[in-house]
Amino acid sequence: MNLKNKKLLLTGASTGIGKAIAYSFLKKGAKVIVFGLHKPRYCSSFFKVDLRQRAQIISAISKIGKIDILINNAGVVFPAKIVETKDEIMEEMLDINFKSVFWMSKYAVPKINKSGCIINISSIRGLRGCQGVGVYSATKAAVINFTETLAQELADRKIRVNCIAPGFVKTAIWKKEYGVKADKVRKELEKYTLLKRSAAPEEIAHAAVFLCENEFMEASTLVIDGGIY
Fold first, then answer.
1. Are the CB atoms for 221 and 162 separated by under 8 Å?
2. CA terminus-to-terminus distance, the chain
3. What ranges do the domains of the chain cover?
């Protein structure tokens, strides 16, 4: 797919991976429509949407025209052991990490042009469970399974569906998770990657561009984790 003048609908683009994706696609000449709570620096148009609310998603999608690409990027993580996870925290991770992916896909599919594509942002934790982030890992595993099923269901329409599973990425989410300990925790985890570092958000954005441009990528989960072992 040549991205020039293509229309991308993207969730969660104000910081981190989403911000890098928006910028990368704009540089390619695409038009970037963003759904989220905060207007990002890089976009062509913005709709304030609480992705936990199905009605808001439906309303916003009804206001846009045809698109070529959907990228479900928005996500949250609240570290806690399973027995210590509060119900409201579990519900928020389910709502944003999985239900929003389901709703965005369900209601945006009729707007996607033939030969379009969908990319879902999962996580390495969706492939490997990890203590302390059990609910987060489960939601990201659901995204991977959902991706494979949706790819099968949309193949006849020539709409490709793929997934990205990043490892450790240097974004603001670390401070939200761990506060003042964020840098220390991240650097400790980086020891378990072959490259001994975190990814830059731009490296995940490059993968999103690749999945759009390579028209033989289908029903795949692209792992970008620096060789976690």
1. yes
2. 34
3. 7-224
Instruction: Report the DSSP pairing between strands 112-121 and 7-11.
Output: unpaired
User: What's the pTM value of the predicted model, to 2 decimals?
Assistant: 0.97
List CB contacts of 35: < 8 A, sequence separation 6 or more: 9, 10, 11, 47, 49, 51, 57, 60, 104
Q: Does domain 7-224 have CATH number 3.30.200.20?
A: no
**Per the residue annotation, which of 42, 136, 178, 192 is the catalytic one?**
136
pLDDT value at 138 more than 90 = yes
Count Cβ atoms below 10 Å from residue 14 Cβ, excluding itself: 19
Angle between helices 54-62 and 100-108 (to 10 degrees): 30
What are the residues facing 69 on neighbouring strands? Answer: 8, 117
178 is catalytic: no
Contact 122, 143 (CB under 8 A): yes
pLDDT tens-place string over residues 79-127: 999 999 999 999 999 999 999 999 999 999 999 999 999 999 999 999 9
